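Researcher: Here's the sequence for the chain we discussed earlier.
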Amino acid sequence: MDYLSLAEVETIARRAHEGQVDKNGHPYSEHIAAVAHGVADRGGSVEQIAAGWLHDAIEDDALTRDWLASAALTDTTKSIVDALTKRPGEALEEYTARILATPGALLVKQADLAHNSDPARLATLDPATAERLAAKYRRTRALLGLDEG
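Model: Thanks. This is the structure I predict for it:
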C-alpha cells in the first residue's frame, strides 16, 4: 500500500483545520505545525510526525473517524491519532491510560503539551483561563509520568 507522504498529511491537516482558531485567536494550523515539528525535534518517527499533524483532527471534528479508518496511513499512525482523540465525557485518567498503552502516542502528546503549556501562549489568555489550563496540563503531565516542560 502507498501511504500518504508527510507533505500530503500536512496539507490534509491544514485544510481540515482551515478557519479554526485556538484559544488565543490564532489560526489552529499554527498549533498542529508546532506539534508536528515538536515531534520531529524529539526524534519522532515519520508515523509519529504524521500523527502530530492529525492529533486534534477527529476530536475537533475537522476529520471523521471514517476518514481516519480509510486513510492511506499506517496502522501505527491511526492508533496514535485514535489514542490522542479525547472522547466526550471521558475522564482524564482514561484518556492518559490509553495514551500510555499506545506505542508512540506519548511522544506526540508530550509535544502537544509542550506547545499548549508554552508560557508565551498562556500569557496571552485571561488569567483565569491561563491558570485553569496550566493546572490541567500539569495534571495531564503527572498522569503520563512526564517531567514539567
